[in-house]
Amino acid sequence: MQVTLQIDELSALLESAGPEFVCDSLNQLLSWSRPVPVAESSPEEMLCRVFQSAQATAFYTALADGLKPELGQYWLRADPVSLQAGMSRVFLAACGAPQLPTADRQQLQETLNQHFSEDGLEFFLPNNQRWYIRLAEGHSYANSEAAAGLFPSPRALLGKDISKATTATDKYWQQCFTELQMFLFAEPCNKQRENSGHTAITGLWLWGGGAVTALPVVATNLHSWGNSSLLQGLCQASDSPWHQAIKITAEGEHLIHWSTEQSGTAAEQLQLLDQQVFLPLCNAVTQGASAQLVVADAGCWHIRQRLRWPWRKSTNAWTMLVKNG
Fold this sequence. Notes:
- The structure is a single chain.
- It contains 11 helices and 12 strands.
- By secondary structure, the chain is of the alpha/beta class.
- The protein folds into 2 domains: 2-53 and 215-323; 69-211, no CATH class.
- The protein has a 7-stranded mixed β-sheet, with helices on both faces. Strands 3, 4, 5, 6 and 7 form a 5-stranded antiparallel β-sheet that branches.
- Helix 1 (10-17) packs across helix 10, helix 2 (24-31) crosses helix 10 (266-286) and helix 4 crosses helix 9.
- It is globular and about 65 Å long.
- The two termini are 29 Å apart.
- The relative contact order is 0.26.
């Protein structure tokens, strides 16, 4: 049995939670591990390679969110973010729009569509984490298959200066990003959020775009698990099974993708990972499974059950992935 676990930003979660947070199952897995070389790539690139698909994150996550995108259409993510200005830099402070009421989100979607209709942009706001733009047929970017000219994933820049990422972007999307900031500044829902003690939505992050022209393909014996909307969408498009709850019991190959785009503090996300991912993986390894742990911001390890010599210090995930990372 072969298990591959891909996690978006584990090192960043551990760093945010602090060295006092203990993740016993992860520590156990790392005590059985040895590092292996792997080409640097984003979680989106890794998953799309498995499914032999064009990298078009928005198309597949929109499918998972019930929006029914069609082949040939260009979709991109326009996720709500909070931007924070410094003396000479702008920081990406937060992603998502927690506690945004459904009625407010629907009203904002309607207003966005009215404002940008002449630009050939149609907005979809299905939940408070993932928002979308579909380009109209005939739009100058509608035939592009790749995410060229767009921003990188917001997770990669969370808490960091966005200046380099935005200036390296295509001029059209720079202008669109700026206009969206100006639009949101005057939005009544932002005033209500600030009055309620919530972070204002000050920008929409434009990333993960592309047009899919052929459905993905996946091995017939692959079992897919995890909380990832991208993995869910890829499985739907390739007509292969996907389950959110992880139960590694069948033979064959298992792919687990855990996305850190979920709500909750770093400690809360790590607790979920410990209970729902690391513990089931520990159990599978003790039963003879071979595993590969791929962490987007830290590296790759091969894991199989090994004896730990008594004089060796216990492996600590925070020390291994953050302090010595």
